[in-house]
Amino acid sequence: MADRSGTAPAMDVEAEVVIVGAGIAGLATALALRRVGVGMSPGGVLVLERHAELRSAGAALTIFPNGWFALHALGVAHKLISRYDAFETSRVTTLETGATQVFRFAGRKSSGDDVKVRPMHRKALLEALAEELPPGTIRFSSRVVSIDSEGSPQIAVLRLDDGTVIRSKVLIGCDGVHSVVAQWLGMSEPASSGRSAVRGLSVFPDGHGLKKELRQFLSEGLRAGMVPISDTDVYRFLVNNTISAGKTCSTFDCSPFNTAALHN
């Protein structure tokens, strides 16, 4: 099998656990399994990623306190806390009236200063998780084209586009909206949330001078916002209600910053 810098040739592979998708969910799952002693033998846990490298798309995300508890348990929180500052306030302005409300993120006083709301680059989180996995755990350029059980309910057989056949006792799907694992399991198609979002990262080489707080601007069916990630990088987003919602969103319900833990 290949390490994180290459691709394995076509072959027959046996694995205890196969995880499809090397996003945040896939890498966190692989690391959690190893932390509890599952798949410690060589090739025990195998993560398949169809891209040639870790995907940096997604710009940034915000980790809330319970997400930091998860990252502490995985053993990677210390890598990120030292790089990203916490912020404690969110300033929300309604464009029609000009009224601004200020909300504070209280955090957990008993949990130490590190368990607070912190924005970060998505790629930094992916790299922190991947670095904790042994070489050979992630198999890049590995697109799953079919899954079957060969008549046995105790095995999953995955066929990749390069001809490789992988047999696994456990198969976990972390491969996103168009999940091949979900299709094989017969799960229903994803339902629309009624919202679309555009996210991006602006870089100011000479510094942006913004306060360390989440700024949001609300209008009918729209929500825009920005938050500094570092002294030079600012994460920005725009959320649009594409269909009529059944209820009015509360201040944080419809925000892309409503990240209770880890998302992919």
Automatic annotation (TrEMBL):
<feature type="domain" description="FAD-binding">
    <location>
        <begin position="14"/>
        <end position="211"/>
    </location>
</feature>
<keyword id="KW-0503">Monooxygenase</keyword>
<dbReference type="GO" id="GO:0004497">
    <property type="term" value="F:monooxygenase activity"/>
</dbReference>
<keyword id="KW-0560">Oxidoreductase</keyword>
<comment type="similarity">
    <text>Belongs to the 3-hydroxybenzoate 6-hydroxylase family.</text>
</comment>
<dbReference type="GO" id="GO:0071949">
    <property type="term" value="F:FAD binding"/>
</dbReference>
<dbReference type="Pfam" id="PF01494">
    <property type="entry name" value="FAD_binding_3"/>
</dbReference>
<dbReference type="InterPro" id="IPR044560">
    <property type="entry name" value="MOase"/>
</dbReference>
<protein>
    <recommendedName>
        <fullName>FAD-binding domain-containing protein</fullName>
    </recommendedName>
</protein>
<dbReference type="InterPro" id="IPR002938">
    <property type="entry name" value="FAD-bd"/>
</dbReference>
<dbReference type="InterPro" id="IPR036188">
    <property type="entry name" value="FAD/NAD-bd_sf"/>
</dbReference>
